[in-house]
Every structure is written in C-alpha cells, then in structure tokens.
C-alpha cells in the first residue's frame, strides 16, 4: 500500500564513517555533561558538609573560649580572694602581729574558708570538665537516705563551728536509680549553701518524699534567704553574684548554677523557694524508676 511505504535513505557509503564519528562524539559529549553534572552535585554536597564542619568547629572554639573566660573570671575574683585572706592572716601570725591565743579565735574562719574554697575548686574543675568533655551519666541503684547521712557527717565540723544543727527527717531507706555522683555533688552544694547563709544556732532540715513517681529531696534553712531575681538567675543556669555568708564565708556563685545544670543534664531539676530574711528551700527532683 502507498501509505505504508518506507522512504529509503540513500546515504552514500563514503559518509558512514563520518556519521559514526558524529554519533560517537555526541555520545562522548553526553557522558562528559552527565559527569560534570554529577561532579557539580557532589561538590555542592561536599560544600554543605564542609560548612557544617566549619560551623561545628567554630561553635566548639566559642564554647572553649567561653569556658576559659568564665574560669579565669571565677579564679581571679572568687578563688584568689579567700586564698589571699588566708595568706594575709598567716603572714600576720608569722610576723608576730597576732599571738597564738589570738590566732585561735580565727581558726573557725580559717577552717570555713578552706572548706568553702575546696568545694569551690571542685565545682570549677567539674564544670570545666563537663563543658569541654561533656558529662557522662552513670545510673545505678543506691539508698538516698544513706547518701544524705553521709553528707551530713561530712559537714558536721563546719556546722558545729556555727552552732548549726543539721537534721534529717528521712527515717526509711529510699531506693533510687540515678547518677549517684551527681546527687552527691548536688547535695553537698545545697548543704554548704544552707550552712553559709544560716545564722548561728540555726537549723537545717533535709527531708524527702515521692510525688507522682518523682523523688523529691528538700534542703531547708532558716537563714537570710534571697530575692526572686537571684532565684531566677540560678534557675536560668547563670552564675549568681557571689554573696558573703553570715559567718563572712565567701563563694564563687557557681555552685547552685552548676547543680541546676547537672541535674537537668541527668533528667532532674532544681526547684527553689526563698524569702529574704526567712530562709530558703531547695528541692532536688529526680524521676522515679
């Protein structure tokens, strides 16, 4: 039939080679274009990854710089001050300006400053390590009452110097599964803080309870208390201004902020209630089993 007839292409044999070369060149152009497109896409992905790496390294450098600046600030203002005070006191004694019987009157102050400075240095080292290396959690079961009793024993000498009585209202063992080191460190700071801001012959109460599956540990004092602005500063994980204690104790102002930061990292939290002139209650809240 006429409609189904093919149109024959009469290509001379002499052009077959040229046509083959043209097809080959077109195929090579296609391969080069496709390779270039893939290379360009790979380069874009590489650039994105490189930007991410640069951003992460910049963030780490800024974090390290912040740690360094904050560490230097604490050391220059809060660690050096009590050490200078102790050095001056010892110099006066060695030079004969203070007699032995007179120096004994300062022994309580010296002991208190050494204890607070030691805890301050531990806080700084722990905070610096956590900022640079990251804090790791170690969960295991332990008795909260036993840990409280142990910490009370640690502070008996310091509390006795201010005639402060630390009593626990925990009568039964409380088994918890959590990071024992973080709890120990948090409790030490709260007890030290309560002693620091309690008046002579004051009372510090430590109690605990289970509420809606959470374990709550309360450390209550009846000392000088604090205003709402200071509480908000602490709970926002910012360093509160260092305040002198009722016995002229010094402090770095990082302890409570560090406690709140560490508790949050481990899934817990720190609550605070306080009123100027009426004392403070700090509550450690940790999830149940």
Task: Give structural notes.
The mean pLDDT is 77. The protein has 289 residues and is an alpha+beta fold. It is 56% helix and 16% strand. The chain has helices spanning 16-94, 100-103, 107-133, 144-154, 156-161, 180-196, 228-235, 255-265, and strands spanning 139-143, 165-168, 175-179, 203-211, 214-221, 269-275, 279-287. The strands form 2 sheets. Strands 2-4-5-7-6 form a 5-stranded mixed sheet. Strands 1-3 form a two-stranded antiparallel sheet. Helix 1 runs antiparallel to helix 3 (107-133), helix 4 crosses helix 6 (180-196) and helix 6 (180-196) runs antiparallel to helix 8 (255-265). 25% of the residues are buried.
CATH evolutionary superfamily of the domain at 119-287: Histidine kinase-like ATPase, C-terminal domain
Query: What fraction of the residues are assigned to beta strands by DSSP?
Result: 15-25%
Order of helices and strands: HHHEHHEEHEEHHEE
Identify low-pLDDT runs: none
Question: Biggest sheet: strands side by side, in what order?
Answer: 2-4-5-7-6
Helical fraction equals: 55-70%
Proper CATH architecture of the domain at 119-287: 2-Layer Sandwich
Largest sheet: 5 strands, mixed
Overall shape: it is elongated
Q: What's the β-strand tally?
A: 7
- Which structural class do the helices and strands define? alpha+beta
Q: State mean pLDDT (0 to 100 scale).
A: 77
Q: What's the alpha carbon Rg, rounded to whole Å? A: 34 Å
CATH hierarchy class name of the domain at 119-287: Alpha Beta
CATH topology of the domain at 119-287: Heat Shock Protein 90
**First CA to last CA: what distance?**
89 Å
**Tally the helices: what do you get?**
8
